[in-house]
Recover the amino acids of this structure.
């Protein structure tokens, strides 16, 4: 017998596919859906987790969820280019250089770095990419950069910002900006959800 939350999720997915709700529409509350389906609110919560993992809904678990807009696929060609749309700095604070960051920047471990997290929005105002950057001291100009490509599973903070579930796979570009002498002046992690990006370097 099919689990109740899968049955609820399947029915909601079918309604979304049929256009009963359009992208951006708010879904009924968990309590309302629980009454409609004759199930416990926890069952509806599990159904919503399943729908989020499939990319059909988006938003905060504690708030009313919305039907997700189909992701727009973008191709990243220039990882050092300025973002052409809206950005929002979500945090800015000093931190201590870990061994990895010290190696990337060529500084002693434990030295104080400036850390910033910037959320890059698509033209519709949805989060498309996260950029976490670290530098020592004031911002300095760069003349070149190096980049390494890998894959990570989103942590809770990244998933929250991108409207995805924890452990969703994402590209991680480690970009290090260099001055004319080849000294690192800044390093950054660019986190790009795999369902929204292709990479061409």
């Amino acid at each position: 017998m099919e689990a109740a939350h899968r049955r609820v999720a399947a029915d909601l997915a079918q309604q979304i596919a049929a256009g009963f709700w359009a992208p951006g529409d708010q879904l009924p509350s968990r309590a309302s859906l629980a009454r409609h389906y004759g199930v416990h609110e926890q069952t509806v919560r599990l159904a919503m987790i399943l729908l989020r993992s499939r990319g059909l809904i988006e938003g905060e678990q504690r708030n009313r969820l919305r039907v997700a807009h189909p992701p727009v696929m973008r191709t990243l060609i220039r990882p050092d280019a300025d973002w052409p749309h809206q950005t929002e700095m979500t945090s800015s604070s000093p931190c201590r250089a870990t061994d990895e960051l010290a190696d990337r920047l060529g500084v002693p471990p434990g030295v104080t770095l400036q850390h910033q997290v910037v959320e890059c929005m698509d033209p519709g105002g949805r989060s498309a990419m996260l950029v976490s950057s670290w530098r020592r001291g004031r911002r300095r100009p760069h003349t070149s950069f190096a980049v390494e490509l890998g894959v990570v599973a989103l942590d809770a903070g990244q998933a929250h910002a991108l409207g995805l579930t924890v452990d969703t796979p994402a590209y991680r570009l480690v970009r290090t900006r260099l001055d004319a002498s080849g000294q690192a002046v800044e390093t950054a992690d660019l986190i790009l959800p795999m369902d929204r990006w292709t990479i061409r370097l």
